[in-house]
């Protein structure tokens, strides 16, 4: 059982040797890549060692059970322990999303519902910011267009983690957030106290570590500059500092106007463009290898409604996993963990089912 572990053990040993070589650390990018992979394999190696230790204890207890009643009494507990260790190792052997260790750029856009939708987009930004803070991640607003009542028509926020373990990576948790988020509540603009339904869209993108990782031909870019504007279209800048970059081959368009400097807006736009191009490349790979690589959670259409936030009932519901709880106030305050975990669990179950006995 678990014949594939030997391949992991071999790679783990090779990485350990490589990371001990000072020459490897002369290339920071290469060192980070190896470090991430080593951290990922560490979990598998530790789980396998635990599995071996429990299996050895169980075998010894069974052999000596006839002679030692105390060891015989330990057998049922060790059998349960071995089952737990086996399942943990089995799950760790499921191939991970290669982007799990990456940081993330979240793009939140108001949808149907006018000002109420823009206010909800701002609420989502606050929810993600507090969730990130609770996990020890850092957030940075890259761009945003405010609304008249203090919400956001659109906002882009970068979320950065510090762990080398892909299982603790930002993308490993936030990749499930892409889609339409529906809200049901009484808008501040509603004088009759009627419940309205509106929505905001979230796009989750794994961020590129190094600019060189995504090759962009300058001839493929169409760059326009224009004057920035604020809520309601009011001018906030008298110079052409806003930047719009179009990647002609893919048709991807990124516009930035938050910074006063055209150079800063261009750098921010390129940062988001690289993330979108990385996601575009991954989508092409997913389409080519859909049966083997695609996660049922991750690959749902981004236009699909994924979650409902019902304020009158204090209810949060994820429509992909069936998760439902009546602590929406806490979720909006950043306690998003159980909702995300339901997606992780469903994703792992789907991958495990797809692999079948090949994992063993």
Automatic annotation (TrEMBL):
Localization: Cytoplasm
SMART domains according to UniProt: PCRF
SUPFAM superfamilies: Release factor
Reported modifications of this chain: Methylated by PrmC. Methylation increases the termination efficiency of RF1.
Assigned GO CC terms: cytoplasm
Keyword Protein biosynthesis in record: yes
N5-methylglutamine: residues bearing it: 234
Biological role stated in the UniProt entry: Peptide chain release factor 1 directs the termination of translation in response to the peptide chain termination codons UAG and UAA.
Family (UniProt): Belongs to the prokaryotic/mitochondrial release factor family.
Name the record gives this protein: Peptide chain release factor 1
Organism classification: Bacteria, Bacillati, Actinomycetota, Actinomycetes, Micrococcales
Gene behind this protein: prfA
């Amino acid at each position: 059982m678990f014949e594939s572990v030997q391949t992991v053990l071999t790679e783990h040993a090779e990485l350990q040797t490589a990371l001990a070589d000072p020459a490897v650390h002369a290339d920071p990018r290469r060192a980070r890549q190896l470090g991430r992979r080593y951290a990922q394999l560490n979990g598998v190696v530790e789980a396998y060692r635990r599995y071996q230790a429990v299996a050895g204890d169980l075998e010894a207890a069974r052999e000596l059970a006839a002679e030692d009643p105390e060891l015989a009494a330990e057998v049922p507990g060790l059998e349960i322990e071995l089952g737990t260790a086996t399942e943990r190792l089995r799950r760790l052997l499921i191939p991970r999303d290669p982007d799990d260790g990456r940081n993330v750029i979240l793009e939140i856009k108001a949808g149907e519902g006018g000002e109420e939708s823009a206010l909800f987009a701002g609420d989502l930004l606050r929810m993600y910011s507090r969730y990130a803070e609770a996990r020890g991640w850092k957030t940075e607003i890259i761009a945003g267009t405010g609304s008249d009542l203090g919400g956001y028509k659109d906002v882009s926020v970068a979320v950065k983690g510090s762990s080398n373990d892909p299982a603790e990576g930002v993308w490993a948790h936030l990749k499930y957030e892409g889609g339409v988020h529906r809200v049901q509540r009484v808008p501040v603009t509603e004088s009759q106290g009627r419940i309205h339904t509106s929505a905001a869209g979230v796009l989750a993108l794994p961020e590129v570590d190094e600019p060189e990782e995504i090759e962009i031909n300058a001839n493929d870019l169409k760059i326009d500059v224009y004057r920035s504007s604020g809520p309601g279209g009011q001018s906030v800048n008298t110079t052409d500092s806003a930047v719009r970059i179009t990647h002609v081959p893919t048709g991807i368009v990124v516009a930035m106007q938050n910074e006063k400097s055209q150079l800063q807006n261009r750098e921010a736009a390129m940062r988001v463009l690289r993330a979108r191009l990385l996601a575009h490349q991954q989508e092409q790979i997913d389409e080519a290898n859909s049966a083997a690589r695609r996660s049922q959670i991750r690959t749902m259409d981004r236009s699909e409604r994924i979650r409902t936030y019902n304020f009158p009932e204090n209810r949060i519901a994820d429509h992909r996993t069936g998760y439902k709880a009546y602590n929406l106030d806490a979720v909006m305050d950043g306690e998003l963990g159980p909702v995300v975990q339901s997606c992780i669990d469903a994703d792992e179950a789907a991958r495990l089912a797809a692999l079948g006995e090949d994992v063993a």
